[in-house]
Amino acid sequence: KARVAVVISGEGSNMGALLYASRLPSSPYEVVLVASNNPDAPGLALAEAEGVATWARSHKGLAREAFDDALHEALAAARPDVIALAGYMRVLTPGFVRAWEGRLLNIHPSLLPAYPGLDTHARALEAGDRHAGCTVHLVTEEVDSGEILGQLPVAIQPGDTADMLAQRVRLAEHQLYPATLSAYVSRHQDAGWIEGQVDALAAALPEVL
Ligand code: GAR
């Protein structure tokens, strides 16, 4: 199975969705680490209760590069094939993004390219949109603009507030993220891209010969 590290800042409901989906027998990935810049993130307690390794350090008082270096080291030690940002509310440094290029996914609460950044639901309501939604995309140095891997629209209902809409978009996110991550790692596993897979092949080679 592909090794996935999840990075969170808060509630961690998307992390929970990724974790429980990984425990279905058919899952092509397992969650090997949950990391956070917020030691009080409720998602960390959930991960611990479920027996998943966690790492937490507050970013407060640290320069951006220093924090991202610490995060990078903690992640690298867990040897992830893929890192899934799930409600991680900080912009990553270019060096960090380059180090994990092609292996770094994010979920964003809008139908990108509409509404990158914050306050997506209020902006969709204000614009009178008929649909909000969510997007899973590859992370690149420019915020919320990497290749789109999957999207789900969510109908806006009369009388919706930003909070009501956020709650329904989250339901959609919980379906979209595990499915899109599974498809992504399966695609790359087939291509022999996942390191674990390559190692396993290398180890098996002498027996084959
Ligand atoms: C999710 O809706 C996610 O899309 C959003 O934060 C929420 C986290 O919820 N992410 C962003 O806005 C990233 N800029 P969760 O902690 O319950 O998964």
Task: Give your account of this protein's structure.
This protein is an alpha/beta fold and 209 residues long. 42% of the residues lie in helices and 21% in strands. The chain has seven helices and seven strands; from the N terminus they run βαβαβαβαβαββαα. The protein has helices at 13-22, 42-49, 64-77, 94-99, 120-126, 162-190, 195-208, and strands spanning 2-8, 29-36, 54-56, 82-85, 104-108, 131-138, 148-155. Strands 3-2-1-4-5-6-7 form a seven-stranded mixed sheet, with helices on both faces. Helix 2 (42-49) links the parallel strand 2 and strand 3. Helix 1 runs parallel beside helix 6. It is globular, with a radius of gyration of 18 Å. The two termini are 25 Å apart. Glycinamide ribonucleotide (GAR) binds next to helix 1, strand 5 and helix 6. Residues 8, 10-14, 86-87, 89, 107-109, 170, 173 line the site of glycinamide ribonucleotide (GAR).
Would you kindly provide a brief summary of this structure?
Helix content is 42%, strand content 21%.
Small-molecule binders = glycinamide ribonucleotide
Kindly report the average pLDDT value.
Answer: 93
Q: Please give the radius of gyration in angstroms.
A: 18 Å
Give the biggest sheet: 7 strands, mixed
Beta fraction: 15-25%
**Unreliable segments of 5+ consecutive residues:** none
**Anisotropy-based shape:** globular
Cα separation of the termini: 25 Å
Question: What is the ordering of alpha helices and beta strands?
Answer: EHEHEHEHEHEEHH
Assembly state (oligomeric): single chain
Instruction: Give the % helix.
Output: 40-55%
- What count of helical segments does DSSP give? 7
Q: How many runs of DSSP E, i.e. beta strands?
A: 7
Given helix and strand content, the structural type is alpha/beta
Enzyme class: transferase
EC number: 2.1.2.2
Function: Catalyzes the transfer of a formyl group from 10-formyltetrahydrofolate to 5-phospho-ribosyl-glycinamide (GAR), producing 5-phospho-ribosyl-N-formylglycinamide (FGAR) and tetrahydrofolate.
Protein name: Phosphoribosylglycinamide formyltransferase
